[in-house]
Fold these 3 entries.
Entry 1:
Amino acid sequence: ETGVTQSPTHLIKTRGQQVTLRCSSQSGHNTVSWYQQALGQGPQFIFQYYREEENGRGNFPPRFSGLQFPNYSSELNVNALELDDSALYLCASSSRQGFYSGNTIYFGEGSWLTVV
Amino acid sequence: AQTVTQSQPEMSVQEAETVTLSCTYDTSESDYYLFWYKQPPSRQMILVIRQEAYKQQNATENRFSVNFQKAAKSFSLKISDSQLGDAAMYFCAYSKKETSGSRLTFGEGTQLTVNP
């Protein structure tokens, strides 16, 4: 049990639609990152939020956007869904100061998105 | 850009025996973190072991140990006394040791099967 919860666990969307995925971070963690993991591949970094601001972004288009709230929970929004967006979306939380001292990055169980 | 390569898509081991998973990486940084994560069928990423690049001593966690060769940019994972519960996908990951502390670059993974 990592203390990171994600919702929904599974969902199916139609191409062109929009989706919002949610993540509740572990208590005390002020940094959240989102990863996309396509079937049979390693996770790819989407972006990271620190104190409600985007703080680093991977090679993903602007239709992937996010929010971090004062309680450090987070959302990942994807607009104009494409078939290739079908993947497991993982949320990871950590404490920025804690990372420097070697604390763990905690992952949630992910949200499976299927785009048809 | 940093890259992580796992050249063994699949490995198998007999229960109670030892197996080594390989990982190489490329970076121009001098200080960074390396990780091995385990991803069971539940899909939740679980940290197995962590190595700080400036530490010459290889990290060890119970039955798990690493062979960190900084000059060769190699970071292998040894699992001793393999157990059925070790069966999972294993990912090698890299992170800079600076502001983007929780931005991980993952390899493609190695699927480990443990035979009874």
Entry 2:
Amino acid sequence: DTAVSQTPKYLVTQMGNDKSIKCEQNLGHDTMYWYKQDSKKFLKIMFSYNNKELIINETVPNRFSPKSPDKAHLNLHINSLELGDSAVYFCASSPGWGTAIMNTEAFFGQGTRLTVV
Amino acid sequence: KQEVTQIPAALSVPEGENLVLNCSFTDSAIYNLQWFRQDPGKGLTSLLLIQSSQREQTSGRLNASLDKSSGRSTLYIAASQPGDSATYLCAVSRASGGSYIPTFGRGTSLIVHP
């Protein structure tokens, strides 16, 4: 069973389109994240949600809107896609603060490679 | 703001060598430190997690140490194999709003040749 799964794995789309990436975790974690990995392979936090509430928004353009319908899902919707949005987007999850789980390990999905043409 | 630096950026070694990958961070108020492996075109695989109260963790040929006061961690790979070729990423987590937020270094790209 995949712990953190994201779909689609590949996404090719034209500039100006709106697209969504879905993420689900079956680990019972309270916290979920979205990271962007640029062409130089640097991973940068975009958003963090804890129990469906937004915790971190790292100066991401308003065109990016995360949605957490429940604790196990954190989807990423992107409006008016631009060439610079091309990257690999990773979803991740980890136990939250004060959890009874002693191991606070973060788990990552396999990534979604977004190409804007 | 936490900054994580990994040295060296790239490493190419013959099979069998023992390796040391370094990670340093500027803010010692971390909750944990995690080492990941990323293969080309793939996701991140967690290798080792060290809680801030711990000094080291071991898994097979891998050993990671943490010196929180000096802001350093080391990943030691014993008897390297071609299958170890990948990018190794260090991430330190801070506590924020009920979550732990991992901040990554830029990674060490490792090639182990036969």
Entry 3:
Amino acid sequence: DTAVSQTPKYLVTQMGNDKSIKCEQNLGHDTMYWYKQDSKKFLKIMFSYNNKELIINETVPNRFSPKSPDKAHLNLHINSLELGDSAVYFCASSRGTTGELFFGEGSRLTVL
Amino acid sequence: GQQLNQSPQSMFIQEGEDVSMNCTSSSIFNTWLWYKQDPGEGPVLLIALYKAGELTSNGRLTAQFGITRKDSFLNISASIPSDVGIYFCAGPEGGSNYKLTFGKGTLLTVNP
């Protein structure tokens, strides 16, 4: 009964490939996010969605395309992967905009 | 974007000691949040502060929202080994809770 679940947890792929990460939350929240954590542990917002609508797109390259089929799901598709995309990607959700985020366990992407 | 300066970057302490870390912002925040990240996990919310001057406790943790609204601190009393992890402060960039900015984190190591 994990609150925010991401799959896969680990992803190793070659440069140029396309990959997707899925996220689901069972908390009944209406806002979902993708964050990127680099090797120095710096957490940076990528996207925010509210009720399936994109609210924040934080100057992320358009190779990254989020998709929210419903309020409980927010997936991230990445085209033409580059070495610099290697990071841990965290999905999170919140009720409204309290800032009280619930994070998933992260998906560690390694691009070779 | 807004800068959050978090210090210290890392701390190495003995079990039982008290710990203090703080965060300053280049602009006024209306919310301050403190998260903890254990290895291999996503960040977990510890304390949320919504009012200038507010002092809030959660067990051995105490956090305060600075009166200038540009700073916050987190204290941990009587540290134990499971306090090990990375502690992040966070606040809404540009006043939008859809876009939390995170500090660079304080890595806490507790020596039993």
